[in-house]
Design a protein that fits this description.
The chain is α+β, with helices and mostly antiparallel strands. The chain contains 23 helices and 21 strands. It is elongated, with a radius of gyration of 45 Å.
Length: 654
């Protein structure tokens, strides 16, 4: 092997470092002495150690710069990045609060809020898992395409209600599916234990628990309360992983105590419903007032709705007819006309009024009575409900005087009860009267009023001529306004008492043991095309007992079927008044003011029993074995009393 081949083999075996060191060893000393010794000519001296130190120092400086920058971002100048992080994870969410409870005058709950759950979802997250949508749609009870379309329309949002105000158990079943992007939150739902019976007074709330009708709307700010707020941290899936702090505490709504007595309310609703079923009427309203305070004890309307149903049924059934719908009061107006005549001093209860021949001209029309009552006194005008007699009492009165007198009893003005949507009714001023207006007003045509206004006027008559604005809130007392002298009011009350006694138009309204003062009314219903139709409105308004009056009540039934029970107020509305008042007097433990009649009825019943027993008294009561005696079943303490069946008068009712 040649020497050249060996040198080539050695060169291949040596690396770059060995070659470099070899070249340095071979180089001789440089010219110019030792200063240039060991350095190759034309090249910079290469120092590996210094270069390594230089590279390490540069890397250390970079590391220190990164640490300093991180310290600045995380400690000294972290506000911006903290805000950015919070915007992605920190959320302020509301804390729901319960709505205040509504109770009746005795503390019985009428409207309560119960906790429920609402299911919501993150559309962005849900659309990432389309395979789970059919399962979610089935749990929600909606079609898949409906859910998909709903999510797609809000694909850029992070929040969407899927199903609101559901039972917590149902919500837990949906959450148990563990579908990404589906969550729940606590809300409250309103519940009305009395249902349809008190719907028009209470109203209802919407899905956001805001009052929509009735007292729920009128006192919404009082009942609603103030929701709170808290800050939380949510993860990428929207789950709350930490409660950061409380921003504002939730303030629950305040409770509201009404003047309503739920027992009397139920009686009123039940009897009004019975009247509509038995007379074929289209609608009805009834109001019960406390004479001394003006408190509304009951207010019922039909048709009605169930406020517990979402949406609360047909909107046409939502209005409180006793406050919003006006009717011509018919003959219930006659006691006010008589009071206006008595106040002038021109007539007394015994003044003679000749109603012969049972009609009188009134412009191009006639005022007629159902019978020719001949010669009556002023009391007889009320007893027989004579249209002719009322007109003859009103015509001599000055127009302005009669107008102001009617207005003083609350007709033509809002009752100011605080209930939303209440109507003022219509009483035309004298400058708008025609030649027949005053005569027709005297017996209840040519003006309009709500059932509440009629009950107010009768309560004023029973309260010594003092008119009190009605109220629905327990403890609120409105100041009375004197509109009639107590002596005249007492005279009119005694006249109205004859209506429910033998010879009156509402004998069937009498209540055993109590004197009842009232007045029937029957009015033709105004036609939308002009004039009057062949449909009727049946009314009865009254006060009980006559001595120390406690209750005033007005009943209005619209469009009764004449073929079923007739259309006179004493036949249609009178039984409602009697049955409700019988129950109310017993519930409120009102002392009888007609003991003699009650004792006579008891004696008659005893005589009848003796006659049926052959004139012999009942035999002695035999002792009973205690162990074998059957214990009678107790009735529930809150069972409402069942009034006796309606006894219809045989004729003459108006």
């Amino acid at each position: 092997m040649s020497r050249r081949d060996d040198s080539r083999r050695d060169e291949r075996r040596s690396g770059p470092l060995e070659r470099l060191l070899g070249e340095r060893g071979k180089a001789g000393p440089a010219r110019g002495g030792d200063r240039g010794a060991g350095k190759p000519r034309g090249r910079a001296r290469f120092d590996l150690r210094n270069r390594l130190i230089l590279v390490g120092g540069a890397l250390g400086l970079c590391a220190m710069a990164l640490v300093g920058r991180a310290f600045y971002l995380q400690v000294l100048g972290n506000d911006f990045y903290r805000q950015q992080g919070d915007a992605r994870a920190l959320r302020e969410i509301p804390i729901p609060t319960s709505r205040g409870m509504i109770t009746d005058r005795n503390g019985e709950p009428l409207a309560v809020s119960t906790p429920v759950e609402s299911i919501w979802g993150n559309p962005k997250e849900l659309l990432k898992n389309p395979a789970r949508l059919p399962e979610l749609a089935k749990a929600l009870g909606v079609p898949v395409d409906h859910l998909t379309r709903k999510l797609s329309q809000r694909s850029g949002k992070e929040f969407l209600y899927l199903k609101r105000r559901i039972n917590p158990d149902e919500a837990h079943r949906i959450l148990a599916l563990k579908i990404p992007g589906v969550f729940s939150q606590r809300e409250f739902r309103r519940f009305y234990p009395q249902g349809e019976a008190l719907a028009h007074v209470l109203g209802f709330t919407n899905v956001d628990d805001r009052g929509q009708e009735g007292l729920e709307l009128a006192f919404d700010d009082w009942l609603r309360g103030k929701p709170g707020a808290k800050r939380v941290i949510r993860d990428g899936a929207g789950r709350i992983i930490e409660n950061v702090d409380l921003v504002k505490s939730a303030e629950p709504g305040q409770d509201l105590t009404l003047t309503i007595d739920r027992r009397i309310q139920y009686l009123t609703y039940r009897e009004l419903r019975r009247a509509l079923l038995e007379t074929g009427a289209s609608s009805g309203s009834a109001v019960v007032l406390d004479v001394d305070t003006g408190e509304v004890l009951a207010m019922a309307n039909l048709p009605t709705y169930n406020p517990n149903l979402l949406g609360a049924g047909n909107p046409e059934t939502h209005r409180n007819r006793a406050l919003t719908d006006v009717v011509e009061p018919g003959s219930t107006m006659k006691p006010i006309t008589v009071a206006a005549a008595l106040k002038t001093g021109r007539v007394t209860p015994n003044t003679i009024v000749d109603t012969t021949p049972g009609w009188m001209p009134n412009g191009r029309y006639r005022i007629t009575d159902t019978h020719n009552y001949g010669v009556l006194n002023v009391t007889g005008v009320i007893t027989k409900s004579s249209n002719v007699g009322a007109a003859k009492l009103a015509l001599p009165l000055p127009n302005d005087y009669y107008y102001q007198f009617v207005k003083s009893f609350g007709y033509g003005s809002k009752p100011e009860s605080g209930f939303p949507g209440e109507s003022a009714g219509v009483v035309l001023s004298p400058d708008r009267w025609s030649g027949t207006t005053k005569a027709t007003m005297s017996y209840g045509y040519g003006l309009s009023a709500t059932p509440l206004q009629i009950a107010m006027a009768y309560a004023a008559m029973a309260n010594g001529g003092r008119l009190i604005a009605p109220t629905f809130v327990r403890g609120q007392r409105n100041e009375p306004r004197q509109v009639l002298e107590p002596e005249i009011a007492g005279e009119v009350m005694r006249m109205m008492q004859t209506v429910t006694e033998p010879g009156g138009t509402a004998k069937g309204v009498a209540i055993l043991g109590y004197h009842v003062a009232g007045k029937t009314g029957t009015a033709r219903k105004f036609s939308a095309t002009g004039g009057y139709s062949n449909k009727y409105i049946s009314l009865f308004a009254g006060v009980v007992p006559v001595k120390n009056p406690r209750f005033s009540m007005a009943v209005v039934v619209s469009e009764p079927d004449p073929a079923m029970r007739g259309y006179y107020g004493g036949l249609v509305s009178g039984p409602v008044f009697r049955n409700v008042m019988e129950g109310a007097l017993r519930l409120m433990d009102v002392a009888p003011d007609d003991i003699d009649t009650w004792l006579a009825a008891q004696a008659a019943a005893e005589a009848k029993r003796l006659k049926a027993n052959g004139g012999k008294p009942n035999g002695p009561v035999l002792p009973v074995d205690v162990d074998s005696a059957e214990t009678p079943e107790e009735l529930p303490a809150d069972l409402p009393p069942v009034a006796a069946g309606a006894m219809l008068p045989t004729g003459g009712a108006r």
